[in-house]
Structure to design on (585 residues):
């Protein structure tokens, strides 16, 4: 997969793109990752689907989408008319069979550059995220989907697990070409005046700046554990955030919730990145990938040596 | 079903005025020529009220008026939470990031006589529409309700433009808010309104729906919704609308794209 720059959109946040295309060329992104397609059309969850939290946003959108047939007939041609950036299609299903069906069919479309397995949406009951919450489930799903497509395959991981590195190793072993993370964190908000949850479903997924440190931590852990490229996301708003994720081990990053606030943010983020590379005398963003991990492995042993606990007595 | 205007603008505007006009209610004037020239009644803008990530999201605000030549927008809003509280603190001269115009407009313009009926900040889009309807030379009626006579927003301006205005307050001012609803129901029939626009009150919505069902004439309602992107990408701002005339099925509609203006019969269900 060739991206002009390392920045894509976060799947769940990009269900409609025509209006964004009126603000800037969609090709400004290195790739466009679109909202998950399911076999059958989905209406999505009942409102309220959004709940603002401190420096964050809870969502329970519920994967509304027109279904595979309508996606192929209308959405994909629309995307192709709007620009030339590679299109990554996220797929979501109730069963492995559905993921396989989606992968097979979408692989036949010239407009699809890559597939992203949604194994992490927390807002659709027992689908998606459940696959991503065990190494066995994740392996089986990616393995089956791998067989169904020749296209580059990304696995989008959920943070709602005990050991993200374990899941990452499983999907790599199963044949994922890249790993994207994190999806949203399961959360609840209660309206104290009604005494009820604020969202249409009991739980919703938390995103935005509040979760960034968790996302950076997980990107670091996954990048340490696998060899395939990692696409990091979770609270990225500025070029500084992008640098942080790359230093933690991400090869690429995605903008999600920030699209709702800084609609043209991709433009300033790219400008800031370019500026930063120039000032630091770096020729490419690639030099940033895993930089903090390398620094840490160099300096941490020395620090430990200097602060070694003296022997008792 | 009017469609969104083709122009879309994202950029900084300048606050000209931002004043309390009733307890908790503010009138904001922004100098924002690209949006002022393009916006229609019913549409809204998405405002950045914080320069930090707290609160995170923009706030959607209905447009109550626009002067394309002066390049100004009028917004009527109520302080209900952290976002609107911050909005109320913007002084004249301050810069504010604006995305707009967004959404669709009310019908523009069916033949008269036409009417608007609204309450509270729901009056905002109705004021803009009523003034434009008058400029088109239509016989225009306005039914304005509020808790007190401080909340008859836009009544004086509409009356000055030749709109036939009726006001009714919960406190009995004007004709009283209950009597106002009765007056609307009577006059809608005897004056044969061709079209009614409403916003801001469920009771008013039901009255307009009943009138529309009985006369077969179109009514429209502007809805509000909590919004994420306001551009149709996040799918967060859905409302439930009736998918068929017999009201057997519902579907979700995006308030920021398909709305905020909807045919009254899609939104309001009348018990038999």
């Amino acid at each position: 997969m060739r991206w002009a720059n390392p920045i894509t959109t976060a799947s769940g946040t990009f269900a409609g793109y025509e209006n964004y295309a009126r603000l800037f060329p969609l090709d400004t992104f290195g790739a466009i990752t679109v909202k998950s397609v399911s076999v059958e059309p989905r209406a999505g969850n009942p409102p309220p689907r959004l709940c603002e939290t401190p420096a964050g946003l809870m969502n329970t959108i519920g994967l509304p989408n027109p279904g595979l047939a309508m996606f192929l007939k209308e959405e994909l041609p629309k995307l192709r008319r709007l620009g030339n950036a590679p299109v990554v299609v996220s797929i979501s299903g109730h069963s492995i069979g559905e993921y396989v069906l989606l992968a097979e069919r979408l692989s036949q479309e010239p407009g699809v550059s890559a597939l992203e397995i949604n194994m992490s949406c927390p807002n659709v009951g027992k689908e998606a995220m459940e696959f991503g919450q065990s190494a066995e489930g994740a392996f089986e799903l990616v393995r089956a989907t791998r067989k169904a497509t020749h296209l580059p395959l990304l696995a989008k991981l959920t943070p709602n697990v005990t050991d993200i590195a374990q899941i990452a190793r499983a999907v790599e072993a199963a044949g994922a070409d890249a790993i994207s993370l994190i999806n949203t964190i399961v959360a609840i908000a209660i309206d104290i005046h009604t005494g009820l949850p604020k969202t249409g479903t009991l739980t919703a997924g938390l995103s935005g700046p509040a979760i960034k440190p968790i996302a950076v931590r997980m990107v670091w852990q996954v990048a340490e554990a696998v060899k395939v490229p990692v696409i990091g996301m979770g609270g990225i708003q500025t070029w500084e955030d992008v640098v942080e994720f790359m230093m933690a081990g991400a090869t690429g990053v995605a903008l999600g919730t920030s699209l709702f606030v800084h609609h043209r943010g991709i433009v300033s983020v790219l400008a800031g990145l370019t500026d930063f590379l120039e000032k630091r005398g770096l020729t490419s963003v690639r030099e940033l990938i895993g930089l903090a991990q390398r620094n840490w492995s160099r300096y941490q042993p020395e620090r430990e040596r200097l602060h070694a606990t003296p022997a008792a007595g | 079903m009017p469609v969104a205007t083709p122009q879309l603008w994202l950029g900084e505007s300048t606050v000209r005025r931002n004043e309390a006009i009733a307890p908790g209610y503010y009138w904001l004037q922004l100098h924002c020529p690209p949006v002022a020239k393009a916006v229609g009644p019913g549409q809204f803008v998405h405002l950045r009220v914080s320069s930090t990530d707290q609160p995170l999201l923009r706030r959607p605000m209905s447009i109550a008026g626009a002067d394309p030549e002066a390049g100004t927008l009028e917004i009527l809003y109520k302080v209900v939470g952290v976002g609107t509280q911050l909005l109320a603190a913007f002084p004249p001269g301050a810069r504010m990031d604006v995305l707009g115009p967004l959404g669709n407009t009310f019908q523009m313009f069916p033949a008269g006589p036409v009417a608007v009926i609204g309450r509270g900040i729901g009056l905002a889009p109705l004021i803009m529409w009523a003034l434009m309807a008058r400029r088109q030379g239509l016989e225009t009626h306005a039914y304005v309700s509020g808790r007190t006579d401080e909340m008859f927003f836009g009544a004086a301006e509409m009356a000055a433009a030749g709109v036939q205005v009726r006001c009714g307050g919960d406190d009995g001012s004007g004709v009283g808010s209950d009597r106002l609803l009765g007056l609307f129901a009577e006059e809608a029939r005897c004056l044969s309104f061709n079209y009614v626009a409403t916003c801001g009150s469920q009771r008013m919505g039901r009255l307009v729906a009943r009138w529309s069902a009985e006369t077969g004439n179109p009514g429209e309602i502007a809805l509000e919704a909590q919004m994420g992107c306001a551009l149709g990408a996040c799918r967060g701002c859905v409302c439930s609308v009736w998918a068929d005339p017999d009201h057997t099925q519902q579907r979700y509609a995006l308030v920021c794209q398909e709305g905020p203006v909807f045919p009254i019969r899609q939104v309001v269900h009348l018990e038999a």
Q: What stands out?
A: The first strand of chain B starts at residue 9 and ends at 22. Chain B has a mean pLDDT of 96.
